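Ops channel
N.P.: pipeline sanity check, posting one input/output pair.
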């Protein structure tokens, strides 16, 4: 199998770091993008010589452009772009401010939008490429009211992914847009949420970041458009809507 060049945002910890190490073990080249330079460089060291760390803020379009340019300068091409950057929030819907909503869109939607838009010209030039957007089960079933604004942002990301796929594949069918939806993952996500929150590592029915990373690697190879990271997740979504009397 030909080695790929894989760009991963939000790569300094959690799912992004686990994915970077797994991709590197396959001898794919990996470009790590995140804001925290020291943590990012530590992950890059664990990945070995085919890893490039690019400290950048994915909420700033000019920095996304710089990440694309840096990856191309080093490796000459990008095969897969993984939009993994994001952050949660712990606030009930009745308590949300406009600033809370703006921040969730900035961190969870604009980061992916900028990534897709800025890598797309390169994919169009090559007539192939693959974007993978990391969503959440909460983007399917808004089952946690205290995550209301995050739930909404992930629903937005899901729709955006589908709409990009529809638009781009009309002319470029070899450019794929995939959506990956994990459930609870044992990372610092909960503790790092705006306003704090429950520690995701202590919640029941969780997955490790490494388990999720293995599913993402399968998506890199299969190019499937829509994937859950745990067996039975699709049935859970259908059951949720059936119980609430809604159509999924």
């Amino acid at each position: 199998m030909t080695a790929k060049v894989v760009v991963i945002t939000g790569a300094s910890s959690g799912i992004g770091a686990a994915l970077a190490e797994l991709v590197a073990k396959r001898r794919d080249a990996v470009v790590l993008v995140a804001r925290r330079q020291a943590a990012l460089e530590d992950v890059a060291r664990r990945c070995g010589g085919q890893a490039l760390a690019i400290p950048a803020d994915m909420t700033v379009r000019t920095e996304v452009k710089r990440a694309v340019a840096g990856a191309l300068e080093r490796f000459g091409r990008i095969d897969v772009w993984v939009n993994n950057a994001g952050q949660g929030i712990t606030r009930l819907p009745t308590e949300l401010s406009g600033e809370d909503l703006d921040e969730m869109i900035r961190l969870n939607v604009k980061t992916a939008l900028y990534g897709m838009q800025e890598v797309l010209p390169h994919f169009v030039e090559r007539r192939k490429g693959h974007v993978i957007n990391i969503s959440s089960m909460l983007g399917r079933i808004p089952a946690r009211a205290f995550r209301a604004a995050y739930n909404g942002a992930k629903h937005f990301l899901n729709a955006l992914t589908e709409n990009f796929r529809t638009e781009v594949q009309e002319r470029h069918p070899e450019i794929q847009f995939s959506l990956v939806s994990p459930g609870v993952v044992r990372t610092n996500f909960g503790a790092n949420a705006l306003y704090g929150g429950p520690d995701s590592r202590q919640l029941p029915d969780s997955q490790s970041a490494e388990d999720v990373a293995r599913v993402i690697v399968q998506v890199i190879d299969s190019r499937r458009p829509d994937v859950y990271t745990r067996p039975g997740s699709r049935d859970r979504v259908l059951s949720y809507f059936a119980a609430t009397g809604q159509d999924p």
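N.P.: looks fine end to end. The helical segments are 14-25, 37-47, 61-75, 98-126, 148-169, 189-192, 209-222, 233-243.
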